[in-house]
């Protein structure tokens, strides 16, 4: 009798600066991975093409082809229709204001059924089931990266509301405040999102503010201020980087505390490109910034950095593929 082939699934985490793809085995161990930069121009098909290639590379590293995967999942920003596999209003991605059939497109390209979920939602579920959220029945996942996304777990279940629950980045922390990339004013993301911080940094730099942020960016061959660039600038005590990150911490503290006051969750998990990059010291700073705004400041929620790190969103997407196989995706993939 020939040995049984392991069940392998794929997961893709679509971020504003990077696309992370993984292949996992039946115990959710990563057995193949690949990372590509998110395109800065073009449109949804250009992004989807890079997502497809990233998962094919990860599958190759795992010793298989994408068509040999049991299924695949995607965690995407924007307004996600999980049943149709469509994504719209992904404004931190190039040319993606309208609706795009991401799941069906990837199913065709990869030769396997592809499920699509909200990026932060699937990452939060992964932390609940496999990571830092395992001891808790209620938590908020706060993913600090290109934007600021949130996932809510209540009674061990992912709370979706009417479909858009968890948009913590668009909680207003200052009435009439800074312009957000969503077009509104005063959102937490307008102060803490990497994209909004870069816009602010460029304006300040053009106005004469001293900073080496853009020199560091060019030195490392980047065309935007990634989490790694911010990290290097902070290490060098760059004055503008320090000022903007301090501003972001204050906004995160106020916004997260307000969400905790409403839901009274047991824990907050900090993830995302910036959250994982900065780690425990910055999670502690956020907890400190939350304290003045907490109604029960003598009993704050536990604070953790996402245990699954950079792979969390992609592993969560793979988990999604095990729980949700849209009929349309399965039919398109010929499964």
Brief sketch in words of this structure:
The chain has helices at residues 44-61, 102-110, 119-130, 188-192, 194-206, 213-219, 227-235, 239-263, 272-290, 312-323, 327-332; strands spanning 9-14, 18-24, 30-37, 72-76, 79-81, 86-88, 99-100, 114-118, 139-144, 148-154, 157-158, 267-271, 302-305. The chain is of the alpha/beta class.
Describe this structure in words.
The strands form three sheets. Strands 3-2-1-4-8 form a five-stranded mixed β-sheet. The longest helix is centred in the last third of the chain and has 25 residues, at 239-263. It has two domains: 9-119 and 312-332, Nucleotidyltransferase, domain 5, CATH 3.30.420; 132-307, Nucleotidyltransferase, domain 5 (2-Layer Sandwich), CATH 3.30.420.40. Strand 5 and strand 6 (86-88) form a beta hairpin. 40% of the residues lie in helices and 19% in strands. Helix 5 (194-206) runs antiparallel to helix 8 (239-263) and helix 7 (227-235) packs across helix 9 (272-290). The protein has eleven helices and 13 strands. The radius of gyration is 20 Å and the shape is globular. The two termini are 26 Å apart.
What is the CATH homology-level superfamily of the largest domain? ATPase, nucleotide binding domain
Largest sheet: 5 strands, mixed
Distance between the termini: 26 Å
CATH architecture of the largest domain: 2-Layer Sandwich
Low-confidence stretches: 326-335
CATH-assigned fold name of the largest domain? Nucleotidyltransferase, domain 5
């Amino acid at each position: 009798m020939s040995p049984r082939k392991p069940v392998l699934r794929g997961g893709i985490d679509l971020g504003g600066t990077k696309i992370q793809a993984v292949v996992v085995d039946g115990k959710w161990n990563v057995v193949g991975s690949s990372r590509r930069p998110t395109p800065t121009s073009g449109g949804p098909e250009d992004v989807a093409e890079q997502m497809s290639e990233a998962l094919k590379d990860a599958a190759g590293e795992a010793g298989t082809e994408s068509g040999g995967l049991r299924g695949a999942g995607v965690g995407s920003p924007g307004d996600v229709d999980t049943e149709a596999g469509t994504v719209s209003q992904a404004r931190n991605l190039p040319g993606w204001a309208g609706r795009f059939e991401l799941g069906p497109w990837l199913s065709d390209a990869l030769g396997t059924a592809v499920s699509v979920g909200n990026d932060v939602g699937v990452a939060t579920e992964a932390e609940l089931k496999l990571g830092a959220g395992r001891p808790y029945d209620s938590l908020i996942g706060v993913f600090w990266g290109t934007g600021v996304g949130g996932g809510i777990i209540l009674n061990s279940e992912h709370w979706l509301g009417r479909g858009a629950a968890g948009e913590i980045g668009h909680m207003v922390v200052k009435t009439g405040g800074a312009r957000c990339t969503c077009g509104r004013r005063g959102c937490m993301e307008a102060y803490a999102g990497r994209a909004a911080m870069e816009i602010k940094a460029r304006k300040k730099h053009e106005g004469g503010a001293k900073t080496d942020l853009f020199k560091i960016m060019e030195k490392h061959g980047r065309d935007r201020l990634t989490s790694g660039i911010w990290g290097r600038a902070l290490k060098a005590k760059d004055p503008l980087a320090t000022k903007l990150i301090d501003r972001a911490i204050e906004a995160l503290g106020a916004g997260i505390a307000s969400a905790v006051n409403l839901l009274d969750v047991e824990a907050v998990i900090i993830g995302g490109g910036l959250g994982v990059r900065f780690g425990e010291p910055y999670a502690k700073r956020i907890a400190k910034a939350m304290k003045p705004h907490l109604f029960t400041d003598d009993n704050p929620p536990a604070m953790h950095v996402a245990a699954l790190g950079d792979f969390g969103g992609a592993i969560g997407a793979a988990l999604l593929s095990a729980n949700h196989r849209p009929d349309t995706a399965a039919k398109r993939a010929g499964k």
